[in-house]
Every structure is written in structure tokens, then in C-alpha cells.
């Protein structure tokens, strides 16, 4: 079965989009950290508190090595890792028209048949028979 013309182009565009999203997320995080620092400074000034102590205590999760006072217990926080993958499974479906309905199928032995993203049957490659909802159709 031949590959789609634009599969490599789609893969490249996906990588480009992922890089762009990561760049914007980094910029947003930097703005967020700056705004949090300004907020802590305003609160410290208004309440006559030590700015550096507040930053150490409440903004430590922004740094790579948070500082924790001896009398506080360290809480485990889950880290979300970017799991976006640009690997595309190269499963190609062929189209068949049965009773004026468009179905997509895997052209292999015991291939699956789909209608509107729902599996509705199977395909027997050796005999070219489509089985959809219990009914068999020849090619």
C-alpha cells in the first residue's frame, strides 16, 4: 500500500506547531513568574514582611531546587512532562462504498472496517469479503 503524499508534510507541520507551542508556554511561564514575584513584593511591603523569606517559602516551586525550612515537611507534587509525540502510526485505510455508505477498512488479513470512526466489521483479504454488522459483502 503506498503512503499518502502529504504524510511527511503533516509530520513536519506537527513538529513545527509543537515547537511554537513550547515557545509560547515558556514565555507565558516567564511572565507568570514575574507577576508572582511582583505580587509577593507588594504583599510583603503592605504587611511589613521579609520579601526574600516569602519568595523562598511560597515561590520555591519555580526554581529547580526549592529551599525548604527545617520545620516544614516536603510535599511531593506531581510533575507533568510533555508527552507530545510526533511519531505518526502509519496505518492507512482504504475506502469502499457498500449500499451507498462509505466505509474505511484495513487492507490486511482480518482487517477492521470503520464507519464514522466506529468499528463495524472486519475484512477478509484472502476472499475479498467485507463483513459488516453480521452481513457479508463481496468486493
How does the SSE layout of this entry go?
Layout lengths: L6 H41 L3 H8 L35 E5 L2 E5 L5 E5 L2 E7 L4 E4 L2 E4 L1
Note poorly predicted spans. 64-87
Mean pLDDT: 76
- How many strands in all? 6
Total count of domains: 2
* Biggest β-sheet: strands ordered side by side in the sheet: 1-2-3-4-5-6
Radius of gyration: 28 Å
| Category by helix and strand content | alpha+beta
Shape from CA axes?
A: rod-shaped
Helicity, as a percent range: 25-40%
Describe the sheet with the most strands.
6 strands, antiparallel
Give the SSE string: HHEEEEEE
Query: How widely separated are the two ends?
Result: 18 Å
Roughly what fraction of the amino acids lie in strands? 15-25%
Helical run tally:
2
Describe the structure.
With 139 residues, the chain is an alpha+beta fold. The chain folds into two domains: 87 residues; 45 residues, no CATH class. Helix content is 35%, strand content 22%. It is built from two helices and six strands; from the N terminus they run ααββββββ. It has a six-stranded antiparallel β-sheet with strand order 1-2-3-4-5-6, with no helix packed on it. Strand 2 and strand 3 form a beta hairpin. The chain is rod-shaped, with a radius of gyration of 28 Å. About 17% of the residues have low confidence.
Quick structural gist:
By secondary structure, this protein is of the alpha+beta class.
Fill in the keyword field for this structure.
2 domains; 2 helices; 6-stranded antiparallel sheet
